Amino acid sequence: MLRSLQIRNYVLIDSLDIDFPAGLVIITGQTGAGKSIILGALSLLLGAKADASMVGENAENCIVEGEFQVKDDPAIREVLESSGMDWNGGNFIIRRVLGKSGRSRSFVNDEPVTVGMLSEIAGRLIDIHSQHETLLLADKSYQLSILDHYAGNAGLLDSCSSAYRNVVSLRGRLSEVEEKLRKLSLEKDFNQSLFDKLESANLRDGELEELEEEQKILANAEELKENFFNAENILSGSDDRDSVDSMLKEASRQLEKAGKFVEKAVDLSKRLESSRLEIEDILAEVTDLEGSTEVSGERLEFVEDRMSLLYDLLKKHGCRTVAELIAEKDALSQALYDSTALEEEKAGLEKSLAEGEKALKDAAAKLHESRLKARKPFAEAIEKSIHFLELDNAVFDVEISDVAVGASGSDAVQFLFSSTGKNPVDVAKCASGGEMSRIMLCLKAMMARYANMPTLIFDEIDTGVSGSVADKMGSMICEMGKDMQVFAITHLPQVAAKGDAHYLVTKSSSEGRTVTGIRNISGEDRIQEIARMLSGAQITAQARENAKALLEEA
Predict the structure, then answer these.
(1) How far apart are CA 144 and CA 136, in angstroms?
(2) Is 53 buried (19+), middle (13-18) or exposed (0-12) by CB count in 10 A?
(3) Edge-to-edge strands of the sheet including 513-521?
(4) Could you tell me if 114 and 106 are in contact, meaning their C-beta atoms sit under 8 angstroms apart?
(5) In Å, what is the CA distance from 446 to each residue of 380, 441, 517, 529?
(6) Of the given ranges (29-33, 100-104, 143-147, 250-254), which has the lowest mean pLDDT?
(7) What is the pTM of this model?
(8) Which residue segments constitute the domains of the chain, with CATH numbers given?
(9) Largest Cα–Cα distance in the chain?
């Protein structure tokens, strides 16, 4: 239940602090006094869309805070626990702060929460029936939800919704896989051709660099061979010239002899000997190079053909190195393999989808069976309540028809009504305003009983009725107040007289500003207000007597 409400700087409300009792709480006031403003502030607290125009004149922000006390509610517990918050014994202080920029902040027990979470919690605390909510009677999903509340189908709905989400997910993934397979099928032959060419090329990382080096040698083999031969002749000597080796040996011996007299000559001799040995190694390598340099047109042609193949593959695949070509080949191989893997995944998805669709069908069937079982007693209960509200000949029925299976099953529900008892049709097409109000009250009373809602607010649900019907609507609302907290914003004295508590909304002017306020009234003040509701601006003695009689009767 809502224990207290504090409002600061909301539209025409400067400051408001008020406590509320359990039972039936009546709220009245002249047209334009600001009842809708208070209801708007409460809606803001419960997660309604915020707007900067809600902030009062000359204020930086507006604050709406409510204190709630509720019995144990697993749904609220689950929301709180998922966010790491405590149950706190069912005591909640909800606060919403709205700045002039239009941005708002929300808090539950002083911990910041999102507006989505606030709405989720608030939806379990208060149900507000606005003046225009009778339009929901034309909404087939709303009608279905009422029947499900009566039938206690929450668990079955969760199962059906879960099964439907699973089917939707499987269908989506299967569609993705089929699309990939379609694309792969179109590209498969092309990819296979590319892969085969790369595979047959026997690619090896670093090969192109080796081939380029070999091509340089083969293309210049004759000149290289001549260069190596001449160098070899120079180092090894010719018919008319001693070899470098013999000359260095002789020079070394001469320096060695001189070393007997000049010590430095010995070092020079040793250096010459080292040089001779190095030149001897160089000569051996030059000889090997000359011998290994092959003049082969066939090998040159092979190398150049191989290089041309690699260059073509690099250009075709937009690669810079053979290593990148090898990576491209591996990618093509994976793409070709993916086709097999996707085929396997598709088969698995088709199997899972068939199982999921069967589970959805079974869940929808259980829901259908439950709704069929609840249909008749639900219709009879509503019809009995309608008869109590002086629609003695009215009939009310529920029609269930098949629709495509979805999150809420495979049923569509339509409420049928006839005030004369003949040929009931869609309630939205045949009921008058007063009849719609009565039907809606009966439905709300039914939902309140089965939805376990702590607080219910009626905003002029009695529109379009008067006299004894209004009195009976008041009695019905009063009866609901025995099991829950009910707020009734009303213009009917028959309803207002039945409340456990009565609050009067007023509008006043102060320093050129109009402000809205609310106060608890009793005794003479309550008699005066109900008399005003009976007679209008001029309160007569008879109206006061009638007001007293209504209060005494209540």
Answers:
(1) 11
(2) exposed
(3) 126-129, 455-459, 485-489, 24-28, 501-510, 513-521
(4) yes
(5) 12, 8, 33, 31
(6) 29-33
(7) 0.61
(8) 1-125+454-521 (3.40.50.300), 206-320 (no CATH)
(9) 157
